[in-house]
Design goal:
Elements (H helix, E strand, L loop, with lengths): L12 H10 L8 H14 L3 E5 L2 H11 L7 E5 L4 H8 L4 E5 L13 H4 L4 E4 L11 H11 L2 E5 L7 E2 L2 E2 L6 E5 L12 E5 L5 H8 L5 H5 L19 H11 L2 H24 L4 E2 L6 E2 L5 E4 L3 H13 L15 H6 E3 L6 H5 L2 E4 L7 H15 L1
Length: 375
């Protein structure tokens, strides 16, 4: 069976976890957490990066830092994971969805301004599949309306928009290091801060509302409860696991890109024949091969395709059910404008296996079975 995903593993993880254990520092913010934070800062150019227990918690931190409150509104696509909305619903905000672009599955930047009201506080672009939203337009809208931009870059590490790292363009960015992502720590994430003025509050909120980060740096003689907060620090064991992959980030990314390009080369004739649609990568984007998806005619054809691939020992999967159609979406959110593409395109999309270490012969076999379905 060819799995849809296999968590990345380099071989150094055991060594680094042992180092963390031997150092007798396995709670948060040890040497490996610091290495990971510094790597993200250097790679993206953000003012500060802080590992978190998940991308969900990174987004919650961003909502706290943006001071999202009861009655506020936040604009985002409906085609995303529920965590994107959860962070703001927890703060009492109403999530306002806008339709997506069918070419990238990202929010349609031309529809954002129409969704803005006097209650709007933030725009949350989701960089689907590690392919950037049209950030110049989004940043311009946010600047003119005095709104925060919180990037859901869960899938976007190592991707760029016009040379800028995803996650470091808006006010806040959120990475995921879940086991399904390009680099993993099992469960984990990171928040990226563009402006240093948010660093102190971010550290306090992340460390249970205390100034313990200052204490560790020797800036205060004892730490105290300063504000509300929670425990968003991942274990040092998780950070050690992640560090083994960040060290080999280019190797892992190149391996994934090789698989992505092989899919593209082998399946492009099916698009030319009008049988499928392939991923579109705008010229302004440098992507990270987070996923390779194709679009079929409709949900019925997709179901038959998934069954066909499974019968040939290949696991392929669809993705998000649009949030505005979910029970919580109906309760806490609203869709602004017409759902022209969100539902229709989500029902056509299917993802092929893509992970670090997927062999060329496996990729070739997958392509052969995709072709077989259409014969």
């Amino acid at each position: 069976m060819i799995n849809f995903n296999v968590p990345p593993f380099t071989g150094r993880e055991y060594e680094y976890i042992k180092q963390a254990v031997d150092a007798q520092k396995i709670c948060g913010d040890g040497q490996f957490t610091k290495k990971c934070n510094e790597w993200i800062e250097k790679k993206t150019g953000c003012a500060k990066a802080l590992l978190t227990t998940s991308c969900t918690h990174a987004t919650e931190l961003a909502a706290l830092l943006a001071d999202i409150k009861l009655g506020d509104e936040v604009i985002m696509p409906s085609y995303t994971f529920c965590s994107t909305a959860d962070a703001f619903v927890l703060r009492g905000a109403t999530v306002v969805f806008v339709d997506i672009r069918p070419d990238t599955m990202n929010m349609d930047e031309t529809l954002i301004e129409d969704a803005i009201t006097d209650k709007t506080r933030a725009i949350v672009p989701v960089h689907y599949a590690g392919v950037s939203c049209e950030m110049d337009t989004i940043m311009d809208i946010a600047k003119r309306h005095d709104l925060f931009v919180i990037e859901d870059a869960a899938q976007g590490i190592m991707s760029e928009y016009k040379g800028q790292a995803l996650g470091a363009i808006g006010d806040f960015g959120c990475f995921s290091f879940h086991e399904t992502k390009n680099f993993s720590m099992g469960e984990g994430g990171a928040i990226l801060l563009k402006d240093e003025k948010f660093v102190e509050n971010a550290e306090i909120f992340r460390e249970k509302g205390t100034d313990r980060s200052k204490y560790y740096r020797g800036q205060v003689d004892k730490y105290r409860w300063q504000d509300f907060g929670s425990s968003y620090l991942p274990s040092e064991l998780n950070a050690a696991y992640l560090w083994a992959q960040l060290e080999l980030a280019k190797e892992i990314t190149d391996d994934r890109l090789n698989t992505w390009n092989m899919y593209r080369e082998n399946l492009s004739h099916l698009e030319e024949d009008g049988k499928i649609e392939l991923q579109k990568i705008p010229e302004y984007c440098k992507h990270n091969a987070h996923m390779f998806y194709i679009k079929l005619k409709d949900i019925d054809e997709r179901t038959r395709f998934i069954d066909h691939m499974k019968a040939n020992d290949i696991l392929t999967v669809f993705h998000y059910v649009p949030l505005h159609s979910a029970p919580a979406g109906l309760k806490y959110c609203r869709f602004n404008g017409e759902d022209k593409y969100t539902t229709r395109e989500s029902e056509r999309l299917v993802r092929l296996p893509l992970y670090y270490g997927l062999k060329k012969e496996q990729t070739q076999y997958i392509c052969e079975k995709v072709e077989e379905f259409f014969k």
